[in-house]
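fyi for ur records
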Amino acid sequence: MTKLTTDNTTGAISHSIRAESHGPQSALESLPTYNRELALEKVGGNPEIADELLSLLISDLPQLAITLDRCIRCGDVPLARGLAHRIQGAASWCAALALQCAAQQLERAAASPSRELGSLWYAHANLQQEIQKLLEERVVNWRKVDKTESIREALD
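which gave:
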């Protein structure tokens, strides 16, 4: 059992992580891909900052997913753990809750002394799935934005 924060607004994350004893995938399924209200709260209510952070995360995710996949396939577990930690931190600031949880699961699997191959691959697959979901939601719901355009500008 791991609690991400003591903030009441992230109770869904804490509850889902505790639910991992019933399976990590069920924990991920109960979390939203993105929580706009929480994202705004994390940056003091500034929508421009929230939008820019999400835009940066989304623009970095495709390359991070490729690099992470190579690390897992080549057995570079320490680097995979570091990438998962980076994704988890960025997802936390952006309130991409399912991505945050999946990244944390991979980070924990990579940090485990046993480093069971099945657990690593399972956590890796879950993280890749959550990356894909966030990227697809971005294209469908927010329209595709290029790196220099903030998501807020795209919505206007």
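The two ends are 42 Å apart (CA to CA). thats all i got for now
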